[in-house]
């Protein structure tokens, strides 16, 4: 018998609901919150309110697009953490009441598991083979994870300060772009020269990352240039975006290459919002030829936050009888280690 999972994701600033039939995606509705753009970052209280407004229509739309009846649902999966507490509470409370009303089991899902296991949603290409390395890069995470099995994973490298997405967003903010700046930098970088300017990259031990120095070096460089020419940013926008993007990608890839060489793992996946970056994807394709990697790149819809990735973990837990309790509460910090 088929398993139907309704999944809810509300950990940060996207309200999303998805329906899966086993590992096949039937619908994935995402409501982005535009309200944060003018503040240069996510405002937690505004995010919670927007989730509260969006959750019911988003779930309705997901059920309608999947074209199934509520009575067919086998279980309800929800993001338990990590994320913003107020945002998580909206999804968790909604999931509990909906599951209780329908008398179906609840499944709690870790957001990071979702990003990594999104590669197991049915698609034309084969999923990653275990063990694989996953570079998980988003607004909140920058990690290299060794994935031994679906629920056996180990973080082998992490950022010690900013996440890669934050580095993109902070550089974009310095350039005067709205939040989230990552996709804007990506777009402008396409017309720029990545070697026009060189920014200092951190030299951190093992497979760890640091991006705060890069942001400071970008800021000081621009402050000096703007003193000489107040139109410097406007006149060099594309080259600046291409150069800062290159600095972020180079430092991400350096550690990924090291991890792949040291651990002798050639199966490489990327996940999280920054994995949508076209420069990062291009570089990964290049490296896959050089190092004989088999690479796995999520579609745009599955790279940034979405409930489909929560649904696939829900399905994988459902078939293992791993259910959650009605008393479960959200957590705000990562639990994988
Ligand atoms: O995974 P995600 O949607 O949310 C978190 O879990 O954080 O990632 C959002 C992050 C933001 O920092 C955003 O600027 C970045 O992903 N991002 C990008 C691109 N698309 C999204 N960064 C660079 N290039 C992109 N195309
Ligand atoms: Zn995420």
Model description:
This protein is of the alpha/beta class and 337 residues long. The chain folds into 2 domains: 132 residues, 2-Layer Sandwich (Nucleotidyltransferase, domain 5); 171 residues, ATPase, nucleotide binding domain (Nucleotidyltransferase, domain 5, 2-Layer Sandwich), CATH 3.30.420.40. 43% of the residues lie in helices and 19% in strands. It has 10 helices and 10 strands. The strands form 2 sheets. The protein has a 5-stranded mixed beta sheet with strand order 3-2-1-4-5, with helices on both faces. A 5-stranded mixed beta sheet has the order 8-7-6-9-10, with helices on both faces. A hairpin with a 2-residue loop joins strand 7 and strand 8. Helix 4 packs parallel to helix 6 and helix 6 runs antiparallel to helix 7. The two termini are 35 Å apart. The site of zinc ion has 5 residues, from helix 3.
Please give the radius of gyration in angstroms: 20 Å
Q: Helical stretch count?
A: 10
How much of the polypeptide forms β-strand, as a percent range?
15-25%
- N-C termini distance: 35 Å
Order of helices and strands: EEEHEHEHEEEHHHHEHEHH
| Bound ligand species | 5'-O-[(R)-(carboxyoxy)(hydroxy)phosphoryl]adenosine, zinc ion
The oligomeric status of these chains comes to single chain
**CATH topology-level fold name of the largest domain:** Nucleotidyltransferase, domain 5
Structural class: alpha/beta
CATH architecture of the largest domain: 2-Layer Sandwich
Query: Which geometry do the CA atoms define?
Result: globular
Percent of residues in helices comes to 40-55%
Q: How many E-type strands?
A: 10
Largest sheet: 5 strands, mixed
